[in-house]
Amino acid sequence: MPELPEVESLVEFLRERAVGRPIAAVDVVAFQALKTVDPPVTSLPGLTVTGVGRHGKFLDLDCDGVHLVVHLSRAGWLRWRDDLSGARPVRRGKGPLAVRVRFAPEDDGAQPGFELTEAGTQKRLAVYVVRDPAEVPGIAALGPDPLATEFTRETLKGIVNGSRAQIKGLLRDQKVIAGIGNAYSDEVLHAARMSPFKIAGTLTDEAVSDLYDAIVDTLRAAVERAHGIAAKDLKSEKKSGLRVHGRTGEPCQVCGDTIREVSFADSSLQYCPTCQTGGKPLADRRLSRLLK
């Protein structure tokens, strides 16, 4: 799933390639992906992309005041095409293509643009056309952005104080902190040397400070690694930069212990026993509260 660092890199990528371009056409292939009707998606052709931003994991293209907002969900991705003039006509309900956005042709006839695709059978990619990003329910409910200057140690302390949630689930809750998903919550907790099952409200001030540093440093480092990388290469770059997530059975890069996994109905977490749980393996059982 694309998380804050990857979406931030897509923002940078699109600012360089899409800003200033008039939209020629928007083809919605997967009708379930379009979540709004007013303004209609047909209002976008003729408008110019004037800015690109991010709200948590949401990608926001400002098109002369009308916003094309995208949430890539678990298996969605954005693929830039330097020339879509020869692209095959869309076949609704066939293949991974969900939306195709074409920009005005260049002088040589090439028509740049991008495609939103989604792998798998569970179609959760979401596209919104709105006048204000706050009209998107998921954006309106977002917690603070962990890379914003307003996100301080005191902010995090206020979030965890009194909370009975496990810290892994708390970090993944977009209404609490925006942009962190399954992968980077594993990475943050490894950097903070903290068990994913730790109850948030039991953290000491020192532990909160360590967790804050781990959140900010982990995300900033991931954003820096992704800087300047083409959209098509971001997935592989993300995987190569992860130290524990997705590395079950491999040695921990910090202590050499074996990375272990806890599996759930539709996801899993990875951790290092030596670094995070005092050497004690966690019970591999389903905890529904962790999946919220």
UniProtKB/TrEMBL annotation:
EC number: 3.2.2.23, 4.2.99.18
Keyword flag Isomerase: no
Alphabetic keyword roster: DNA damage, DNA repair, DNA-binding, Glycosidase, Hydrolase, Lyase, Metal-binding, Multifunctional enzyme, Zinc, Zinc-finger
Source domain of life: Bacteria
Keyword Nucleotide-binding among UniProt keywords: no
InterPro entries (alphabetical): FPG_cat, FPG_N, H2TH_FPG, Ribosomal_uS13-like_H2TH, Znf_DNA_glyclase/AP_lyase, Znf_FPG/IleRS
Gene Ontology molecular functions: 8-oxo-7,8-dihydroguanine DNA N-glycosylase activity; class I DNA-(apurinic or apyrimidinic site) endonuclease activity; damaged DNA binding; zinc ion binding
Domain Formamidopyrimidine-DNA glycosylase catalytic: start-end pairs: 2-93
One of the protein's GO biological processes: base-excision repair
Record-annotated FPG-type domain positions: 243-277
Catalytic activity: Hydrolysis of DNA containing ring-opened 7-methylguanine residues, releasing 2,6-diamino-4-hydroxy-5-(N-methyl)formamidopyrimidine
Family: Belongs to the FPG family.
PANTHER family reported in the protein's UniProt record: FORMAMIDOPYRIMIDINE-DNA GLYCOSYLASE
Protein name in UniProt: Formamidopyrimidine-DNA glycosylase
Organism expressing this protein natively: Sphaerisporangium krabiense
